[in-house]
User: Which sequence fits this backbone?
């Protein structure tokens, strides 16, 4: 068995010492996880970042079929749980395996120079009793050789707003939020009062009805089994805010979205359909900022939470009230 160590945060990657050889892969982190809190939810798309694997890929290896394969480029991942009924092991369907050379010498690079990024879907079938329970871990296998067991926390949901380029091919730049016609909400195409916008996300957990892991979502779209709340914050350039005001009589109160569930035809992609307020408070425009003032990248931040601590936010631009 290969010897392994655990580094908690991907933000340490630029400081990884390239001159020190390693005897096996090291789990760096799960994408968009806090350094001290590696959580996974049923159905969540995550990227496992490791160093020390013997792979030397000439380019990304991507799954070209559904159901997604559980072995890709010789790599497989197993999620283990200790349940009341005994130990359970679930294979993780994989979307892609990629590598990046982190060493200064890019011509003569050894295995410990490469960070391997393995993207997959946490099985919907995983058991979640309460936050962090039951005890769970993952094992990465390279051509049949297993890593150590890395602890992960089981979570009902682990909300993450999709940013950058989403699985639909949208180059979002910031949060992937669209109008009803599928066009992106941007500073030049802002949201308007009363319209329904679509926020794309990962990690909203199990759905009703259930969808098999690694399979495209069927239509009609399954809804999220766990409650989802949204809250509007018209502060320019705001970040996520918690706790929510879950009492309707206390503004700004959280509200329910029009829909929260999986996106038909996609694997592990959720959408939250949100109706914007019929009237907006006075907000500055994203179209331009007065000279000398900070750039306004967003004038509405939509917080999304389960009400139990999992939270993320979608900053967008809306048309100021005329």
Assistant:
């Amino acid at each position: 068995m290969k010897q392994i160590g655990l580094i908690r945060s991907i933000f340490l990657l630029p400081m990884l010492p390239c001159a020190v050889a390693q005897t096996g892969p090291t789990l760096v982190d799960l994408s968009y996880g806090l350094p001290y809190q590696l959580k996974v939810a049923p159905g969540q798309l995550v990227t496992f970042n490791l160093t020390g694997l013997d792979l030397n890929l000439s380019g990304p290896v991507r799954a070209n079929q559904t159901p997604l394969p559980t072995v890709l480029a010789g790599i497989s991942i197993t999620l283990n749980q200790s349940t009341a009924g005994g130990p359970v092991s679930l294979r993780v369907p994989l979307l892609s395996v990629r590598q990046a050379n982190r060493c200064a010498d890019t011509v003569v690079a050894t295995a410990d120079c490469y960070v391997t990024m393995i993207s997959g879907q946490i099985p919907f079938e995983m058991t979640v009793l309460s936050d962090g329970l039951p005890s769970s871990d993952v094992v990465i296998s390279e051509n049949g050789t297993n890593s150590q067991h890395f602890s992960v926390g089981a979570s009902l949901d682990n909300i993450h707003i999709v940013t950058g380029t989403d699985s639909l091919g949208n180059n979002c730049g910031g949060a992937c939020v669209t109008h009803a016609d599928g066009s992106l909400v941007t500073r030049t195409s802002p949201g308007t009062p009363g319209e329904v916008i679509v926020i794309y996300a990962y990690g909203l957990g199990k759905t009703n009805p259930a969808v098999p892991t690694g399979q495209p979502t069927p239509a009609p779209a399954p809804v999220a089994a766990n409650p989802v709340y949204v809250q509007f914050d018209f502060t320019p350039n705001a970040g996520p805010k918690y706790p929510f005001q879950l009492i309707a009589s206390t503004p700004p109160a959280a509200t329910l979205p029009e829909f929260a569930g999986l996106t038909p035809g996609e694997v592990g992609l959720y959408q939250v359909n949100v109706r914007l307020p019929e009237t907006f408070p006075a907000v500055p425009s994203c179209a331009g900022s007065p000279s000398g003032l900070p750039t306004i990248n967003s004038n509405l931040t939509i917080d999304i939470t389960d009400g139990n601590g999992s939270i993320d936010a979608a900053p967008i631009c809306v048309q100021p009230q005329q």
In short: Confidence is low (pLDDT under 50) at residues 1-23, 166-170, 246-251.
